[in-house]
Design a protein that fits this description.
The protein has about 450 residues and is mainly β. It contains three helices and 29 strands. Strand 21 and strand 22 form a beta hairpin.
């Protein structure tokens, strides 16, 4: 009776899912300009989402610009995280990036960037804060907050904070620090604007950073000559990549090399908004040129370098969200070279891109009502896996993936009754003189189709 009871429980779960299904409009196909087709599932939506990161259990943290941090399940259940501090919300500022410490499972540390104001709101800048995330008791909260980094100097204006965060293979903390729309500080060793910062995980300064004799702030710099970097990621070979918005066109994808200068505002493949031209990169070879650039602009935001199994042909490729281009852009990375390979457009500004634990690609759309989408392969044509019987491990696996409200498990066919001892190749019951009690359960679990043939209970 154990299997029968389990099937009844599944039937109840199925009725719950049927009562609260994601609407058909919440799933749609996206065809890239190179012919690739991906399936998009709408998970939930937010008020101006900005960044996300996955936790070891498959849930995620999502930030929103107005200052809320959410703990989110893959089914879209959202719980606001308590303990968030007030952020300076306005213009391009607010709550920014969120990443986990490499040893999060042991120390529970998360790193969060945000904007703050000083001098009665007359000046502003970014900060990075470390905190412990406590998920016990069903009420997520932040504790033990410590400021790790402060963007210096604070300046007037509300743009180009950048404040993206990534941990390197060596455990060092990298932070993008935009030039705050002031341009020339990007070439100044006395300001931390227009730089990529490299720190130890506690905020102290490594003694192997490249500029040790240029002053206090310069000791924190890894690279300089940047504009507004809203994407930062390491590839499997340990190479660091960052993209940045150009002025009027000329957005860049750069391979980040220790002690390099990337030329802003002296060179760019774009022009000033006034129309005044800026010399191209090839006129000044002493500055590192981008590995790829875009004219017209894509307005890049969010960056992940894919290494999952769900899209094996795309392993090692970069995925970039496009704001102005309203597209998810796939870039073929081959060693130290980069070239746009495909665009996926569905008419929405893309703010953030991440890879989920199962290899799906997750994106956040921009602005109020920005949706959280899970992108997977099309399920049509996927071979069905047939199993004789359902064992304890199968039950555990299905329940672990599903949960009572998880739309990633979809009931395709549930037949409860009597059947002959055999099924034909199409899963239909063969007539037989003698019928035996049995159950047939067909499930779609993630990207896998499984037909469980259950014998007599």
């Amino acid at each position: 009776m154990r299997i029968f009871a389990f099937l009844i429980a599944l039937a109840v779960i199925g009725s719950i899912i049927t009562a609260f299904p994601p609407a058909k409009a919440a799933e749609f196909e996206i065809t890239g300009n190179n012919g690739s087709i991906i399936q998009a599932s709408v998970i939930t939506s937010f008020n101006a989402p900005w960044a996300m990161t996955f936790l070891p259990d498959g849930t995620m943290l999502v930030t929103t610009k107005p200052g809320k941090l959410y703990h989110v399940t893959q089914t879209g259940r959202k719980t606001e995280v308590r303990g968030m501090w007030k952020v300076a919300y306005g213009g391009q500022g607010g709550l920014g990036d969120v990443v986990l410490h490499p040893d999060f499972s042991e120390n529970s540390y998360v790193y969060i960037s945000s904007a703050e104001t000083l001098n009665g709101g007359r000046t502003a800048g970014a900060i990075v804060t470390r905190a412990k995330l406590n998920l016990s008791g069903g009420v997520p909260k932040l504790t033990d907050m410590t400021r790790i980094w402060t963007q210096e100097p604070k300046v007037p204006g509300y743009g180009h904070y950048s404040h993206r965060i990534a941990f390197g293979p060596d455990g060092k903390l990298f932070i993008t620090s935009g030039e705050r729309q002031k341009q020339t500080p990007a070439q100044n060793f006395n300001t931390a604007l227009g730089k990529i910062i490299r720190l130890n995980d506690d905020g102290s300064v490594p003694d192997d950073n490249p500029w040790q004799d240029k002053g206090r702030l310069a000791k924190t710099f890894w690279t300089m000559g940047h504009r507004n970097m809203l994407g930062l990621a390491f590839d499997k070979a340990g190479r660091l990549w960052a993209h940045e918005m150009g002025p009027r066109h000329g957005d860049e994808l750069n391979l980040i090399l220790r002690g390099s200068n990337y030329g802003w505002p002296i060179v760019s493949n774009g022009d000033h908004y006034s129309g005044i031209p800026i010399p191209d990169h090839d006129t000044r070879p002493e500055f590192n040129a981008p590995k790829a650039y875009w004219v017209p602009s894509i307005a890049p935001s969010g960056l992940v370098i894919y290494d999952g199994a769900l899209f094996p042909d795309w392993k090692g490729d970069a995925f970039i969200g496009g704001l102005v281009s309203r597209a998810l852009i796939r870039v073929d990375l081959d060693g130290e070279t980069a070239k746009e390979a495909e665009r996926f457009e569905w008419g929405k500004r893309i703010r953030e891109v991440e890879q989920g634990p199962d290899g799906a690609i997750w994106v956040l759309e921009d602005r109020n009502g920005g949706r959280l989408l899970k992108l997977t392969r099309k399920t049509e044509g996927v071979a069905e896996e047939v199993r004789e019987g359902m064992h304890d491990d199968d039950v555990k696996s299905v329940l672990a993936v599903a949960g009572p409200f998880d739309h990633t498990l979809k009931f395709r066919t549930l037949v409860v009754g009597r059947r002959s001892p055999r099924l034909d190749e199409f899963g239909r019951h063969r007539p037989a003189a003698r019928l035996t009690p049995c159950f047939c359960l067909r499930l779609l679990v993630g990207d896998r189709k499984i037909l469980f043939r259950l014998p007599s209970c």
